[in-house]
Amino acid sequence: MLLFLEQLLNGLQLGVFLFLVAAGLTLIFGIMGLINLAHGSLYMIGAFAAATVTNWTGSFLVGLLAALPITAAVGMAIEFVVMRRLYDRDHLDQVLATFGLILFFNELIAMIWGRPPLFMTVPDILNGTVEIIPGIPYPIYRVVIIGVGVLVALVLYGVIARTRVGMLIRAGSTHREMVGALGVNIRVLYTLLFGFGAIFAGLAGAMAGPLMSVQVGMGEGILILAFVVIVIGGIGSVRGALVGALLVGVVDTMGRAFLPTLLKTMLPPAEADGIGAGLSSMAIYLLMAVVLVWKPRGLFPAHG
Amino acid sequence: MKMRTWMAGLAVAALTAGVAFGSAQAADTVKIGMVTTLSTGAGYLGQDVRDGFMLAVTEEGGKLGGIPVEVLVEDDGRKPGTGKQITERFLKRDKVEIVTGVIFSNISPVVAPLTLKAGAFYISPNSGPSNFAGKQCDKNYFAVAWQNDTLHEAAGQNAKNLGYTEAFILAPNYQAGKDALTGFKRYFKGKIVGEVYTKLGQTDYAAEIAKIRDANPQMVFHFLPGGMGINFLKQYVQAGLKDKIPLVLAAPSMDYKIMNAVGDMALGIHNSSHWNHDLDNPANKAFLAGFEKAYGRVPTVYASQGYDTAKLIASALAATGGKVMADPDAFRAALEKADFASVRGPFKFGANHHPIHRWYSRVVEKGADGKLVNKTTGVIMEDHQDAYVGECKM
User: Fold this and answer.
1) What are phi and psi of A251, to 5 degrees?
2) Which residue among A14, A115, A254 places its CB closest to the CB of B204?
3) CA distance B205 to B234
4) pLDDT tens track for A135-177
5) CB contact under 8 A, B204 and A215
6) Which residues of chain A are within 8 Å of residue B263 when distances are taken between CB atoms?
7) Which CATH superfamily is domain B26-146+279-353 in?
8) Cα distance from A269 to chain B (closest Cα, Å)?
9) What architecture is domain B149-273+360-384?
């Protein structure tokens, strides 16, 4: 029972982390109508920036804070140079162009930092464990990730639902020409929005650094999961991204944790191991298929 | 007039002869094709194999065993398709006689058969999948580094020597992962309290770590190469388990690039290898000094394997006077002798052209300069040979 609770907590924590990655993606996808495969590259840049600054200054917090403006700047530069030309093109062109960006950034990072993974760690106070569930020591750093994820969800909700900028963003997503006609500089708004999305990717990357290997191509695996999350949640919906991320996190973790054991009660151990491992890595895609059959536009479609 | 034409014809003939003579000279240069992995996250493996190999060539001023060599290097990007294209080009257009360089076991099943079919020699500096050591062994196929399983057999024996009687083991759900766990179990012989297969390229290991905590084994063995192993170690340390349930690993999980990425988290981790920086033999000392002078960095185990591969080729070229495909039987016999000083100490080939050599136990410590080093603590197995040699009918 304790193990079940611990795995549930692990699943929720993975979900919150996936939300961090998916939030920026769903904003850009849903509001700007842009498929941005380079989101994983921004995540990687965030991690490299955070690792480098952390190693220079010796402070994880400084590294984390430095990563945000850096990824925002890179994001806005991408929007200015590449994305602007893609708003009126179809999704295939966007996929091709942003896939090109992935290759470009992977090579660029390899040229600057090299291919071996970078060192990154957190201060000792975050390196310990805390007993949230009695008897189960839980890494403090993972608790911090949960905290940051909840904070991001609140900030996003606040900005989009409660502020004037959020109102313009929502209006711009559905009635782009009308907002422009009313005197709002929609180009600048989109550049800022793209930078805003990039910040979330950078934040997720910086937060991932102490937990994962900081290396070239680290964004690609995460990107696929993030797409699964936003497809399940409903493209463009921040609420959908949160629910989708938690669902994916819990299903993935529970699948890995209990499927092989469950199968062993029915099958010989060797087969159960193989089938269990296969099934648990498929679990989230099965989840996605089921959700799409039930609700073809995802759980919380953004526009009617 | 007629005379002049005749003279001109003579001149042309002389020139042609000169060119033909020149190309005959060039043919004495032995061409070696290196299909290796220089890009992707694992690109440093191929870079180090290449640099180790080229160090041996440069030491002799562009020769191996006194024979001029031309080494062509191409990046396979860890993709079998790309490896195939490069190999075909090497064999057909460039007429290479020796193919080497392959890092990964998903590339060798493509590159090796092509090379062997063309009658050229395949000499692996890294990858050693089980099929080529057993049923599919070939007279012109040589593996210098190891047979894949032996890496993990050494880890299993090391764990046993360290006194552990129960272990929790995990690896990614693909062939090399399954082979690794089989290899470990073959020599560990203790109780396996948990055996888990993870996703290839997995980033989050919280679920597996919770299982390990729940099973509470004496030790953990994993084969999570590259970034996966770094992800696991970072999360394992943060979960506070490293000091309670120690890790015993194989060589690819603890090279110095990985140690740089995880820092002090690596301290005290037991691992095993067929080579180490601190091995006390003249060949190794010369190799270390030469490598650091030429490239300004510390070599990884992959560089040592590239260097050994070049030295092996040099010994055979010297014995046959540069004849490779011109006299394949002589070249093969020379390779089989392995008449060179390996940087890893005693080295010879088994009947299936895979190494019989020593495995060393190591532990990660802090050196005098504060940097992490792998310190050799002893010999795990003497003259260790792979388990597939019996299946090889050559």
Assistant:
1) -65, -45
2) A14
3) 10
4) 888 999 999 999 999 999 999 889 888 888 888 877 877 787 8
5) no
6) 119, 121
7) Response regulator (3.40.50.2300)
8) 10
9) 3-Layer(aba) Sandwich (3.40)
